[in-house]
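Open question from group meeting: does this chain pack into something compact, or does most of it stay loose? Before anyone orders reagents, we agreed to write out a predicted structure and look at it together. Recording both the input and the output here so the notebook holds the full record.
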Amino acid sequence: MKRINKIILVILIIFAIFLTILVKKYDVLAIDQFFLEKAVALRNGFLTKIVKVVTNLGGTFWIIFLTLICLILIKKRKYPILITVNILNVVIINQLLKIIIQRSRPIVEHLVNESGYSYPSGHAMAAIGFYGFFIFLINNLNIDEKLKKILTSFLICLIIVIGLTRIYLGVHYFTDIIAGFTFGLIYLMLYTNFIKKYLKHE
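Structure tokens returned:
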């Protein structure tokens, strides 16, 4: 791992620990209440339909579906295996963190049915773990640079929007999303660093 990446990783870990301590101590932060109120104020029937579609892209069904498609379509055997192991790791780590932190979901009308604990957001963590891994793979493939930038930009926007939908739907606080992104990125940096040696000849 490059020195700059090590520095970024350390900063992310420190931030994740700091944020988790804050959440454990105060539960709902002022910034959580602020964004939740703003999100609820934006609600309307048409927007809610769009948000529900987008949020599903970070859900279990859709990610499993995409993983199965990868298993079927990608000819190089190592890629589907890496993708499958990746998302399994994300799910396990997220569930362990939820059990450790045990933060209840926001006390507001939930526009989708969700159970379990709130911190960190599973959708946010899965989005950055799953789609972020695709960004890594795309940038390690021998394809047009312009196409790489387009696909990378699209996936980054998708990751961010999926996270924001969870606040709109009332099932997560802002800090749940930030924690999901942070823990997801920490994991992704470690995972991609570990598997780079398997992709160096691709």
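Observations to bring back to the group:
The mean pLDDT is 89.
The radius of gyration is 17 Å.
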